[in-house]
TrEMBL record:
Residues passing through the membrane, by range: none
Gene3D superfamilies hit by this protein: Galactose-binding domain-like
SUPFAM superfamilies recorded: Galactose-binding domain-like
Domain of life: Eukaryota
CDD domains hit by this protein: FA58C
Alphabetical list of InterPro entries matching this protein: FA58C, Galactose-bd-like_sf
UniProt record similarity statement: Belongs to the neurexin family.
Residue ranges of domain F5/8 type C in the record: 12-158
Protein name as catalogued: F5/8 type C domain-containing protein
Organism: Chiloscyllium punctatum (Brownbanded bambooshark)
Length: 214
């Protein structure tokens, strides 16, 4: 039953957009003041029910400032509430500086995310590889041919520092626990149970770790 195996819990899926102020949103352009990017929160009906740019072309983007470097693990989109305006495919861009942008890639290829087929259904995508960035852009590629670009979005993840600390804790404590259990394996006090008791009493980090016996 030895050694003990520690696993990182998949807790990095907090909603990151819903509590942001309108000032955290910007865009390439707006159709009108009631279509501004601050109205682009998932499931909200404020203003005209989402963001729409002045022109519907491939030069438009919706940008979100998450306030700090963040671990991004998933995204979700809707069209503009009660309208014929939605995006059918888009790319994600990310940056720490708001100047140098990188495009999200998957399987070493530029990745286009499938979008929406109506205004109100939510389409959720878990990223194959998480992204660490402060700024995120949704750049529409295609949209409803009988409507305009229209978006509401959510971003999921957790604090970059939380992710870094958890990764470091997993690495260090996993090795310490394995060394401890090997040292105790020569004892006669049922070492697996003793290791588990010591771990739970002194080393538990429940927000980061899940202990299992391999």
């Amino acid at each position: 039953m030895l050694p003990l195996r520690l696993e990182h819990q998949d807790n990095c899926d907090n909603q990151l957009v819903s509590d942001l102020p309108q000032s955290a949103f910007s865009s390439s352009s707006v159709l009108s003041s009631s279509h501004n990017p601050g109205f682009a929160k998932l499931n909200r009906r404020d203003g005209a029910g989402g963001w729409s740019p002045k022109d519907s072309d491939k030069y438009q983007w919706l940008q979100i400032d998450l306030g700090e470097r963040t671990e991004i693990t998933a995204v979700a989109t809707q069209g503009r509430y009660g309208s014929s305006d939605w995006v059918t495919s888009y790319v994600l861009m990310f940056s720490d500086t708001e100047r140098n942008w990188k495009q999200y890639r998957q399987e070493d290829n530029t990745w286009a995310f499938p979008g929406n087929s109506n205004a109100d259904s939510v389409v959720h995508h878990k990223l194959q590889y998480s992204v660490r960035a402060r700024f995120l852009r949704f750049a529409p590629l295609q949209w409803n041919p009988t409507g305009r670009i229209g978006m509401r979005v959510e971003v999921y993840g957790c604090s970059y520092m939380t992710a870094e600390l958890c990764d470091t804790a997993v690495y260090i404590i996993e090795h310490l626990a394995n060394i401890l259990c090997k040292l105790l394996s020569a004892e006669t006090l049922k070492p697996a149970k003793l290791c588990e008791a010591i771990w739970k009493r002194n080393l538990a980090l429940p927000q980061c770790l899940d202990m299992k016996e391999s």
